[in-house]
Design brief:
By secondary structure, this protein is of the alpha+beta class. 63% of the residues lie in helices and 16% in strands.
Length: 179
């Protein structure tokens, strides 16, 4: 795990605990997304990385630009500026969203098939995954004709490759190994 990831997780965890305790997860998610978008602006990056711009001027810029956000979220943005960690903002949003989803029993999954799934197939897969995991599944689908048939399912850090392409590769490896 990269150091940036660890830092982002710590900031996200702290923000998540504040949001959970305040009962405003969605407000925080919106605020963190706005902060991330603001810090990703190339002009803002230049100002924040410019050593000739004073710390007070940078913080004033943050206060003015993010004045519509909740005060605690602005404090987080100010902290990121003071620590020189503004580039962590996108990772913080991603980790915060993961924590929020986890707390609400939501799991994201991605199904890759050779041809588009029908609505019925998609709903059947969601129902099956929900019964296996006990969580509400938000399913994203993608099409990759190169898998020939079957399905590749990615959920969290797990991947199940039940594609025809994977089976053919396994069969070829067995045949080559048998020689």
């Amino acid at each position: 795990m990269a150091t940036g990831d660890l830092g982002a997780k710590r900031y996200a965890q702290a923000a998540f605990e504040l949001a959970r305790d305040g009962g405003n997860l969605n407000d925080w998610l919106v605020a963190l997304s706005e902060i991330s978008e603001f810090f990703s602006n190339p002009e803002v990056e230049r100002v924040l990385e410019n050593t000739r711009v004073t710390a007070d001027a940078k913080l004033n810029t943050i206060d003015q630009a993010l004045s519509g956000l909740p005060p605690l979220a602005v404090n987080l943005a100010r902290l990121l500026v003071r620590k020189g960690r503004t580039r962590l903002a996108p990772e913080i949003v991603t980790e915060f969203r993961r924590l929020a989803d986890e707390s609400q029993g939501i799991e994201h999954a991605r199904a890759i098939t050779a041809v588009a799934m029908t609505d019925a197939e998609r709903e059947a897969l969601i129902t099956r995954l929900e019964s296996q995991t006990g969580k509400r599944i938000l399913l994203e689908t993608a099409v990759d004709p190169e898998i020939i048939g079957g399905i590749i399912l990615v959920s969290g850090d797990k991947m199940v490759d039940n594609s025809v392409r994977a089976r053919l590769i396994t069969l070829r490896e067995r045949l080559v190994g048998a020689v």
